[in-house]
């Protein structure tokens, strides 16, 4: 199975390179045609593909379809191995979990986008449309990169699954052999004869097979002690068989007991080695995630300072340099996430999506500051969106680390309830402070300073809720965090009125309700938030990469909310979101 994964991964790398090369070649041809002067040949201007290029594109389409089929077959083979192992009594949970992770990784690698890009290439070739073929090749090359990354990750995971499976299987074999040897020593050794000798020779053959298996596994992990124990058992069995053949009951019993004793600790030694490997691999991944989390949190604090400076109208060289330095720092985080994703199937490369969005928004903010006439008012929203994306990355890292560590979502209910109760009290205090500030609005000076301090407290509460939601202990925390963050933005913008205070009061009540039930938000009977149109007082921005349609005019069809998707499996959620993405896709 490991060799099959390596073969598929190598083939996909080669296919991705071919697709990229042909796409780049077609792009160069297109650039060359753009420079053709009027009066050039019609074939040149239309960019008709050569017969050779067409053949290469058709071959790529066929090979990618075949490759997708091979990946599906590999995922099916993993499932069959898991079933066969369980049927054979090898129900080791760690091994089964590793196989399930590999299977999910392979299934996730075959994205609808890849299938769509392949269909686009096939259709463009059927129409003999050179421009559509060029674009389809470019898009397919981009879509292939995810499959390539996932397959490269699967190589290491297959190796780890093979090691875990082999150690678990050897432990079971050693346990079974030790049991059979103990029975022989008790039942057959006291009555030595040729039949007893033959039975013991069979056990010695099994011990030799076990020793060779341990030696094979020892090429990957240190197993010197286990190898020595298996060989000692084999030699003792051979001696016991010889004694039984000579009708030496005492010698047969002594050697038989020595063989059983040599095997007694072997199953546990092999399982402990397997467990220590699993723990080391898990810790290796957690260390990478924790480094990424610490660096993300540090950058988020610095980004918040930049966003605050831009809101205050600061657009000097120092602010621009700080934004550039933060942008540069995200690349180190990207490497940590990539390293973690290569070590564990539960670390999705999609973690990098929010980080990539943060990088893009930082770039936009920096470009606004690099203009001849820097515009901090235009740069500030980009900086705030980058901050939101950094926070989203941090919370996704927390959630992923908990999944890797094997945390159970229901283990922190009491703590979560206490946290929600405490946050409700904090919100109540902020509500009182906001009511005290309301009569002072318009006076400027000290009132605006206090309002910004209040906004900072409101944002801090939102971050606490996001951390709680990332832990999986309170399903309502995510929506409450978004509401708290929107309120913080309104306060930062200086918008404090009766409606804002009413929203704060509703948030306080929802915090109380969530703390009592830990089952989500109670229905809003007045439907204040879902039935009315947004007003100027409620005009807040959501991170563009985190809500569909925000990069354009908005989705034509409303995307389902997270609450509506929580009852679905990850694969079902992906399919639903892909369906809505296609519904909202802009048609040329």
Structure description:
- It is a single chain.
- The protein is mainly α.
- It folds into 5 domains: 2-34 and 46-168; 188-264; 285-407, Four Helix Bundle (Hemerythrin (Met), subunit A), CATH 1.20.120; 409-545; 548-588, no CATH class.
- The protein has 20 helices and no strands.
- It has helices spanning 2-34, 42-46, 51-87, 93-109, 112-127, 130-187, 194-217, 224-245, 249-264, 266-311, 317-341, 351-369, 376-405, 413-437, 446-470, 477-492, 498-517, 528-531, 562-565, 570-584.
- It is flat.
Question: Sheet bearing the most strands, described?
Answer: none
Count of discrete domains: 5
Number of helices: 20
**Number of separate strands:** 0
| Separation of the first and last Cα atoms | 45 Å
C-alpha-based Rg, rounded: 32 Å
Based on Cα principal axes, name the global outline.
flat
């Amino acid at each position: 199975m490991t060799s099959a994964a390596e073969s598929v991964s190598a083939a996909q790398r080669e296919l991705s390179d071919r697709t990229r090369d042909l796409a780049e070649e077609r792009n160069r041809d297109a650039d060359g045609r753009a420079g053709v002067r009027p009066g050039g040949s019609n074939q040149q201007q239309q960019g008709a593909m050569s017969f050779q290029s067409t053949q290469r594109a058709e071959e790529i389409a066929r090979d990618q379809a075949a490759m997708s089929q091979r990946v599906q077959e590999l995922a099916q083979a993993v499932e069959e191995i898991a079933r066969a192992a369980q049927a054979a009594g090898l129900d080791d949970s760690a091994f089964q979990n590793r196989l399930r992770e590999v299977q999910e990784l392979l299934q996730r690698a075959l994205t609808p986008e890849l299938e769509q890009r392949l269909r686009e290439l096939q259709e463009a070739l059927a129409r003999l449309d050179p421009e559509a073929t060029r674009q389809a090749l470019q898009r397919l090359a981009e879509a292939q990169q995810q499959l390539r990354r996932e397959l490269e990750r699967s190589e290491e995971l297959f190796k780890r699954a093979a090691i875990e499976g082999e150690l678990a299987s050897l432990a079971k074999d050693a346990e079974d052999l030790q049991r059979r040897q103990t029975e022989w020593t008790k039942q057959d050794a006291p009555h030595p004869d040729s039949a007893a000798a033959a039975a013991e020779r069979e056990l010695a053959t099994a011990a030799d097979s076990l020793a060779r298996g341990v030696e094979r596994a020892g090429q990957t992990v240190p197993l010197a002690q286990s190898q020595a124990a298996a060989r000692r058992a084999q030699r003792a069995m051979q001696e016991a068989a010889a004694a039984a053949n000579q009708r030496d009951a005492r010698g047969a019993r002594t050697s038989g007991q020595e063989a059983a004793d040599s095997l007694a600790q072997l199953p546990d030694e092999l399982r402990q080695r397997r467990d220590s490997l699993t723990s080391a691999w898990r810790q290796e991944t957690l260390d990478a995630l924790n480094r990424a989390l610490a660096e993300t949190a540090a950058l988020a604090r610095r980004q918040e300072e930049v966003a605050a400076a831009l809101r205050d109208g600061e657009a000097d060289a120092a602010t621009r340099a700080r934004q550039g330095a933060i942008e540069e720092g995200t690349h180190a985080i990207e490497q940590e996430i990539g390293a973690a994703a290569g070590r564990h199937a539960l670390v999705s490369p999609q973690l990098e999506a929010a980080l990539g969005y943060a990088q893009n928004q930082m770039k936009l903010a920096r470009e606004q500051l690099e203009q001849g006439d820097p515009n901090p008012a235009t740069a500030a929203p980009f900086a705030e969106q980058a901050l939101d994306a950094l926070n989203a990355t941090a919370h996704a890292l927390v959630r992923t680390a908990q999944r890797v560590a094997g945390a159970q979502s229901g283990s922190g209910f009491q703590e979560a309830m206490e946290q929600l109760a405490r946050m409700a009290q904090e919100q109540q205090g902020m509500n009182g402070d906001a009511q005290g500030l309301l009569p002072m609005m318009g006076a400027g000076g000290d009132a605006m300073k206090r309002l910004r301090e209040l906004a900072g407290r409101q944002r801090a509460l939102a971050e606490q809720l996001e951390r709680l939601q990332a832990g999986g202990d309170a399903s309502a925390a995510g929506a409450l965090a978004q509401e708290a963050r929107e309120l913080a933005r309104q306060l930062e913008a200086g918008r404090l009125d009766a409606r804002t205070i009413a929203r704060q009061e509703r948030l306080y009540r929802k915090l109380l309700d969530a703390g009592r039930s830990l089952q989500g938000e109670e229905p809003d009977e007045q439907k204040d938030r879902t039935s009315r149109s947004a007003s100027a007082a409620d005009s807040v921005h959501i991170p563009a990469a985190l809500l569909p349609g925000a990069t354009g005019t908005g989705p034509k069809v409303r995307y389902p909310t997270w609450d509506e998707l929580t009852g679905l499996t990850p694969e079902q959620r992906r399919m639903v979101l892909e369906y809505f993405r296609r519904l909202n896709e802009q048609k040329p």
